[in-house]
Amino acid sequence: MKNRNEHSVRRRHAKKKDDNEQANPVLPLFEKTVVPSGSAHVTPILVYGKRHIKKEKLAEFKQAYQTHSKSAYEENPDIKAIFAFPDTEDPLTYWHILWVRSADAFNDYLSRSTEKEPVWDAYDYSSKKPDTLTVFGGWNEETKIRTKSASGIKYEFKSNLAGFMKSDGGGEEGPPLFGFTKRYVKPGQIQSLGMSFETVCDIWRQKIPGFLMAAVFQDDNTPNLVHDLRIFANHRSYLAHVDKSDNLLTEAMAVWFENYDTSIPFSGQLYAASTKDEALHTSSIKSNSTPRAQLETFHFGEDGMLGQMPNMTRND
Fold first, then answer.
1. Which of these three, 106, 135, 157, is where a domain ends?
2. Which of 112, 234, 274, 316 counts the highest number of beta carbons within 10 A?
3. Per-residue pLDDT tens digits for 177-200
């Protein structure tokens, strides 16, 4: 039986379209339904992207972000993750990650996060050169309205192709593992990718309580490119999602994986307590034939980390 806190994905029938069109060939699969206040059936929101820091304000930024993240975390019990890491190539660019339980919780965060806070003075942005943050999950129209007032930030809202996000931590203790990648799909295979991935997700949801997010989002600007996002409660849950002793899962993953263009290595970022496991850097299915993933890796608790340690069972 599915967890009651999980917002299940529903599929709608859509007319077939050319996969290279900007329009999504599979309608959004996280239901955009009206959710009563306090309902357990909500879809979390993940906000992710890079922000640029003024060179002369780098030291101030580090201190100000610590203050900002601590205050936001303590004031909003529905924030489970709010942290940042410096880019591996540009020390004046920081990856920002925010996970909140619902659109309402994110809207509350937007309301309290104002330019009066010292952290804003450290960001290097302008109306002509805004930073881009991408919003995944259960955003709503109010969210889009509120983000328009954020100076110097361009929020991009993604509708998912397939997958799920859990609002609870599956009863599994951390530390969690976040994996955000971009992959290319074979031309004409976007719709097939979504359908086959949904089959895999059905197995993952039933089998692995600590699999907290598995979702794929079509890129709006680059044909055949998708954003593949994963969150695991811990390393044990990660290992379970590629359990090759499960024939049904292995076969379903093989069908799904055939839709990717494996001649192009996938790229992205990995956040975990330890990223030394070789399996984290190779394909889940065809490690011998798929180019090694080009992943930036970050370790929770290392010197460069800013913000709060993620706690995916917080307030469950």
1. 157
2. 234
3. 999 999 999 999 999 999 999 999
What does residue 243 show for φ and ψ, rounded to 5 degrees? -70, 105
Q: What would the two tokens of residue 213 be?
A: 């997010």
Q: Is the pLDDT of residue 289 over 90?
A: no
Number of domains in the chain: 2
Cα–Cα distance measured from residue 216 to residue 202, given in angstroms and rounded to the nearest whole number: 14
Q: Is the dihedral of CA 198, 21, 34, 42 positive or negative?
A: positive
Continuous segment of H or E residues that includes residue 145: helix 141-147
Radius of gyration for the chain, computed over Cα atoms and rounded to the nearest angstrom = 19
Name residues whose C-beta falls within 8 Å of residue 8's C-beta, 6 or more positions apart in sequence: 2, 164
Query: Pick from 204, 113, 199, 214: which is nearest to 155 by CA?
Result: 113
Instruction: Give residue 19's pLDDT.
Output: 40
CA distance 288 to 186: 19
User: With left for phi above 0 and alpha for psi between -120 and 50, is residue 137 left, alpha or beta?
Assistant: left
CA distance 11 to 171: 27
SS3 labels along 22-52: CCCCCCCCECCCCCCCCCCCCCCEEEEEEEE
174 and 91 in one domain? no
More confident residue, 244 or 18: 244
Look up the pTM and report it: 0.82
End-of-domain residue from the set 137, 157, 177: 157
Domain with 100, as residue range(s), is 41-157
Whether residues 203 and 115 fall in one domain: no
pLDDT above 50: residue 17: no
